[in-house]
Amino acid sequence: MSTADNIFASPDRLRHAFEKGLGRLLERDTLGPFILATANASFEPELWNSLRPALEERFEELSTDYRARLLGNGTIPDGDEDLTVFLKLAFLGFNTLEPTRFRQAGPWEVQFNPLRAFRPQRMSTQSVDGIRKPFNPDGFHFNKPFMEKEILWEGDLGGSEAALYYNKYPFVDRHGLLVPERHQQHPQFLTPALHDFAWKQTARLGETLPGVGLGYNAYGAGASVNHLHLQLFVRDTPLPIADPHFSHNGGSEPYPAHCMALDDAEETWQQVEALHRAGIAYNLLYLPGRAYLLPRRTQGSFAMPDWCGTCAWYEMAGGMVTSNRELFSALTSSDIAGLLREATI
After folding, report:
1. Could you give the dihedral angle defined by the CA atoms of residues 320, 323, 329 and 333, in that order, rounded to the nearest 10 degrees?
2. PANTHER family per the record (predicted)?
């Protein structure tokens, strides 16, 4: 992998590009970039401490500006989603925000992530029919003009065109949305070529980014956008699903969900293709040289607990997100295992 002008050349280079991009977003005068920068900064305590003064200043400027607009002619140019999120934040007060907190509940990871509760759910919790739907150019997708400002990087990745967007409401470190061949308008449905891209690029990125991975939500398995994307992250510690104590990793502890640990790209594709033929939804986690494939029930077909807004690749991999402080403290290992057993098939 060439390292010239490559944000993937090292963890430090990716972090620098990530943080520099957030600073640029704060210079924009609309709500979307501010919300994205705030949510990403609040995910990491160190980054939050660094950017909080600038974020607070921008919040006051935007509040004053939008208040004047409403008093003047009653119109605001931003879309409903960003305005709704900003009004929630304004109602609570910027000073009530705090960085994301983590704890362990047995083998599971639990995070208190209050800002993620503000995000629009789009299609991630809607009941769906089937596991594939044609791309809709009139629906939400990553080629919308207003999404251009959320691109962190775009270029050649291992011989394929790709764009890396910020995740507006992150729940893992260095969280981005990797969109291969975005102008081809692929729906959220894996093909052999796209699977091959994900497998190979995870391995290549792993050469310079320890802890890198790609999460994938099939249509009907928590995907919020029907435009082919994978969720890139770089973690300091493995996800719970990679714990060697679990049976799919050679240990003795059964995993609460059906999980296939696969070390070969072709074998992984054969299993994915079998799920496609059977019409079964799934979540997929790519790590360098390994994939975890989790067939599951489609979203909306089972009851979700109050403490969990969605069940997608991160949840199926053993990480839980809640925006309720009391539930964050009270959540137990058996609660989490129960959700995985409910979701799996």
Report:
1. -20
2. GDP-D-GLUCOSE PHOSPHORYLASE 1
DSSP state of 238: -
Q: Where are the domains of the chain?
A: 1-99, 101-343
And the tokens for 309? 């807004």
What lies within 8 Å, CB to CB, of 32 at 6+ separation is: 78, 79, 82, 146, 149, 150, 168
Architecture of the 101-343 domain:
2-Layer Sandwich (3.30)
| Dihedral over Cα of 318, 324, 329, 331: its sign | negative
- Give me the tens of pLDDT residue by residue for the chain, a chain 345 residues long: 333 358 999 999 999 999 999 999 998 878 999 999 999 999 999 999 999 999 999 999 999 988 888 888 777 665 578 888 998 899 989 999 989 999 999 999 999 998 887 877 655 456 778 899 999 999 999 999 989 999 999 999 989 999 999 999 999 999 999 999 999 999 999 999 999 999 999 999 999 999 999 999 999 999 999 999 999 999 999 999 999 999 999 999 999 999 999 999 999 999 999 999 999 999 999 999 999 999 999 999 998 998 888 899 999 999 999 988 899 999 999 999 999 999 999
